[in-house]
Amino acid sequence: MDALIAEFPRFVGGFLGTLRLCLFAAIGALILGTVLAAFRVSPVPPLRFVGQAWVTVFRNSPLVVTLFIFAFGLPQVGIVFPTFGGNAFFWPGVAGLICYTAAFVCEAVRSGINSVPPGQAEAARAVGLTFQQTLGTVVLPQAFRTVVPPLGSVIIAMIKNSAIVGAFGVTGELFSVDAGNTALGYSALSSLTGVAIAYLVITIPAGIALGVIERKIEVKR
Amino acid sequence: MSSVLYDAPGPRARRNTLIFTVIALVALAGVVALAIVQLGRNGQLDSAKWGPIFNPGNQYFLAVWKSLGTGLLVTVEAAAITLVLALAIGTVLSVLRFTSTPAYRWLVVGVVELLRGLPVVITIYFASRVLPELGVKLPPLWYLVIGLTAYNCVIIAEILRSGIAALPRGQSEAAYAVGMSRFQVLRLILLPQAFRIMLPALISQLVVIVKDTSLGFLVVAGFSEFVRAANTVIQFFGGSEGINLPLQMYLAVAIVFILINYSLGKLAEYIDRRSSRSKKAVADVATPPVLVDAGIGRGAD
User: Fold this and answer.
1) CATH 1.10.3720.10 describes domain B50-300
2) What is the 3-state secondary structure (H, E, C) of B5-58?
3) What is the distance in angstroms between the Cα of A85 and the nearest Cα belonging to chain B?
4) How many domains does chain A have?
5) Which residues does chain A have within 8 Å of residue B25's beta carbon, measured at their own beta carbons?
6) Which of residues 5-24 of B touch A (CB under 8 A)?
7) What does the DSSP 8-state code read for residue A218?
8) B191 CB near a chain A CB, below 8 Å?
9) Over the stretch B28-74, which tens digit does the pLDDT of each residue have?
10) Domain that holds residue A30
């Protein structure tokens, strides 16, 4: 485990790099995914189509292919992303991860809205609440509770998927830490064990926290 | 569309919907037109770029799809082997978890949580870099398969566990009552039913496996599957022919993946619908298994 001890600062740097990448991607994916979910429940057919098509396309194609299209396909059409700290793959990577994850966020949010029993909204309307009141005080608070656990799983999966963006060539991220270690002649075993531990440090506590939140806000029906 | 959120739309709501539909259609058409103009302006609509992949009459068409087909076969092979191994090991893990005494159970739980928390690209990379270092030399396909299996077997174990948990308690109680052992209860009563009700989730996991085989391209050196075959085609055209077609090629790759996975997804939905109709008794008593929950897997891998 020589690399782990000697190159500890490098791991910390990669750890922070991954968190930064995931922060951008999570914010983007949550916003885009919620908008797409709104499209999918909206009464306007073309918007429903867009939401449906987005989910079908991105959920069924590998993230690697999405990233390739963002990084190598789009520049062919004149869409060139700015570099980030000298790295040309950062923004295409983040954009690809956002588009991919948004499809899963959309599904989680949509199933959350659908999981509120129709009787709830019907009863709210029956006692004379307006549409805004129905949505704001009856449906959304309940939808939020059912949405949080799957949404958490989606974000944890996204953090794991960020490794693919790293493998793709984003430097200063956990996956790329290994390349630096290999260049210095450390064994793959020690270097990759360090990388693996760093991911577990993020995903396992996140999973436990999610479980706690899930139990706290669970709706008994 | 009527929704629980609204009353049935009246004339004014219908008119508003119509107006928004028109606006959305115009915006959508605008985006498509803009994309086409942008494609054209950058010379991406040339038949030289699309022909080799999409036009059967093109001189390169057969050769391109032959090499893509070879790659696709490797992808399917890797996915199939992974599925079989992951099912076998996942079942063993869920059996161990169910039958072992608490003293050992934490060990199984630990392995499951450990592997589940790792990015699958890391497990594949680990297999492809660390195994050779330890003197285990295998064909590249097997590094991918081992990495994928390590991740997916624990996901499948979790799927089976939630399937078992969703069964009515009476099932195992009755089995114990007639004198079966813990292992017998699991093998004869619980697992067969768990497999059945979790079949849709298992198929969804197969979609994840098929998608993840593409990671072999990123991290397994010298492994020629579908995406690498596509990449080789791009390099061939970019090099000797002077035609840059990464956009067209990756679109074709995405379309193939979408076709495969969309069909698998539909199959899962079909089975789900059929079994929930035929087995009302089980489904009504138990909480229906939440698919999203059944794997971070189905989440966003």
Assistant:
1) yes
2) CCCCCCHHHHHHHHHHHHHHHHHHHHHHHHHHHHHHHCCCCCHHHHHHHHCCCC
3) 23
4) 1
5) 46
6) 5-7, 9, 13, 17, 20-21, 24
7) P
8) no
9) 999 999 988 888 888 888 877 888 888 788 888 888 888 899 999 99
10) 2-217
